[in-house]
Hydantoinase/oxoprolinase
Amino acid sequence: MKYSLGIDAGGTYTDAVLLRDSDEVIVSSNKALTTYPDPLGGIRNAIDGIDEKYLNDIKVVSVSTTLSTNSILEGTGFPVGLILVGNYELNQELPTEHYVQVEGGHDYNGIPTASLDEDAVRQFAESVKDRVAAFAVSSYFSIRNHEHELRVKEIIKESTGLPIVCAHELSQELGAFERAVTAFLNAQLIPVTEKFMTTVEEYISSKGIDAKVFMLKCDGSVIGIQSALEKPIESIFSGPAGSLVGASFLTGNDTCAVIDVGGTSTDISVIKNGVPEMSESGAVVGGWKTRVKAIKMETSAMGGDSDVWVKDNSVNIGPRRVIPLCRAADLYPGFLDQLRTNPMPSKGLLGINFQPTKFYIRTGYDPIDISPQEMDVFRYISDEPTSIRELHSRMKKYPSSKHLDSLLQKRLIQTIGFTPTDALHVLGDYTEHTVEASEIGSKYLGSLCRRDAVEFASFVKQEFAKNMASNLMSFFLEGIPKTEIRKIFDIESPAKFKVDIPVVLIGGPVIAYLEDLQSILDAEIIVPEYSNVGNATGALAAKGIRRVDFLVRPASMAAPDWEFYVFSEKGRESFYEYEEALEYASKTGRETILQYMMDAGLDSEHVKVEIEKQEIIPDGWSHPLETRIRVMGVGSSLV
């Protein structure tokens, strides 16, 4: 008998699911807390909950994760140096302070517009190499010609030895700024993903499991482990993609909407006739528009572990993830007593970082690019929960909220605080951890907005459910501001939004929100068995999918029938016959797909390849002005 193991490492929980390949039945599952910042403990505990008698018969391991997504949402990725080559118009804020713009780049036909300023690249690399963990480069029209990005890559490796990501390796879409952001985010995630996947491989091997290892991508397909390490940006939404595929698998619905409630975020997506709905414009995460092909999704920084805080009688949820009070009481002996005796900050101090429920701990990461003022705060925070009062006592003054923010963004410290998970503990809907800690926190925060502990917890739960519903409707009602949709759910009315397809809830204790959602939406809302490990299930139900895009254009508008350029991820090729250009695209696309399947360890013998062609032919032209060709291969599912 053969089995497949699915693993999902989320911001809060790490899940494991074991599937029997012969009939696709789940025979075992387990949940464990994700360990931060090193996920090894959580992965070990999740796998250790699977009966050892199955381990020797596991032949496939597939992994999904929200760790990359959460790093971007929380702004806690590693520092990156960004190099922009060419005539960029920087009318938007860049995602990093470490950047340079140098001469170079190409035009729409891949012809150089200026020579690459190699000296400027070297000078920048030398100036920031001790303050960054990786580099990213985006050259103007690199989708038409890669040479300047590839040369910058050589220079950076020679000068610093640090990893560098080229924008053309990730996208062939127009949008120079968006490609730059995509490359930057990818570079940010390389250390996070490398540590994560190395940990997974090492522990799987130590358990005697001899299996192929895959990683779920953000389009709902799987990828080989080495390719995943080269392009970690493609895993940014692999957790939600797993929940989408998993929800369809668990409920038997080829068409459904999914609300995936994680520790850090809530994600909405739709699958139609067994195919995830895709965002052709590129994924948006943390406010940054990328050029990564991903499932179409509405995501918000609101999850079970989102920070709940009060200021000016207003209750706020998120955007940061914190350790819930109930879980902190389990993790740290003595924390309950600390919480009981923690004083109420003055109203003038109250803010996101100054609450009667806020404590800080170190993460274990070594400081990189930290200011003296930040170090003054960091040195007084220990591996045990540290309150604002304790910081004030040690520093002889209150720490700056700005410096706490910076330390959080650099992943050097983490917050303990009240969360929606705590609210569920107060209400008795979910009581896996120390309820008393949640009750104390709810009493403290409730007193700031004239509510008792139960009233405060009920309000947080209701707000969370309303936010889930408004996120769902925002997904369907494109073009209508989410804030306007959200206001509707605060109006007492007999009218309800109607949803004509099933809505599946995936995530931890999502059943706690079932009645609330049913009271405000007219929809079939389903909480399937194993909904709490839906992401890990989706990692196994996914298929191998590879898309290769080609653009065929005349080399010259003056002689449109004389020569043709073919642009793709392989670079620019030139042909004198239009039919030769089309043949090249078709053949190269098929070869790339089959090689991809082989490299990923997928079955290249059973791959279905389809070719789509779109043409723009002006009146009087014998050949198209533009031909777009997409070659798509779909391999068999893993199970």
